[in-house]
Amino acid sequence: MRQHLREVDMYLDADWWRQITAEKRDELKEKLAGLPSAYKDEENSEEAKRFDLLALRLQLGLLVGDPGYDALRQQVQRIAEDLLDPTTLNDPVVSRHAGFITEVSGDDWWQDVTLPMLEHMRRVMRGLVRLIPVKRRGVVYTDFEDELGEPTPAELKGIVVGTNRSRFERKVRNYLRHIRGVN
Q1: Long-range contact list for 67-70, CB < 8 A, 24+ apart?
Q2: Which of 10, 45, 60, 121 has the fewest CB atoms below 10 angstroms from its CB?
């Protein structure tokens, strides 16, 4: 708050509020609106959201002992390695977190990793993934046809209105593992 005292004093003037322009609104967002990740486009980019999904799947994998956990971990390590590329390290934000990113890219950090550690990793790296050069991102090509069969009703036993979504997802995942024979 102390660092924005000049702006706060300016905003106390009632005349300032009589006509809010786009510039004034942007100034408010930039200087007083709260957490930067709540409004900055680069923090809410598609890349950041995809990384969030990857990190949350990683956290879920750690919780349930998912066999796909290692593949997700390796994917995060590759992203960390891409962030350590010399061209990306020129960015001051990346260079500020270079030590942590180096740890994440190695295997030692992942020994006895905890959920809070994974959440911290997600928060640090989510805004940085957009800085990875496009040429280093993998391109995915698909060549398949959808086959539509006859619709069949699915009976979901024990599901009531107001079901906790995360609990429902856990039950579905456990059921699918059970019918696949994976424990």
Answers
A1: 67/182
A2: 10
Give the pTM: 0.54
State the chain's mean pLDDT as an integer: 81
- CA 111 from centre of chain: 22
Length of the chain: 183
User: Which tokens in the block code for residue 63?
Assistant: 């919780």
Nearest one of 89, 128, 80, 141 to 107, comparing CA atoms:
80
**39-75 per-position pLDDT tens digit:** 455 667 888 899 999 999 999 999 998 889 999 999 9
Q: How far apart are CA 44 and CA 29, in angstroms?
A: 15
Q: How far apart are CA 88 and CA 77, in angstroms?
A: 15
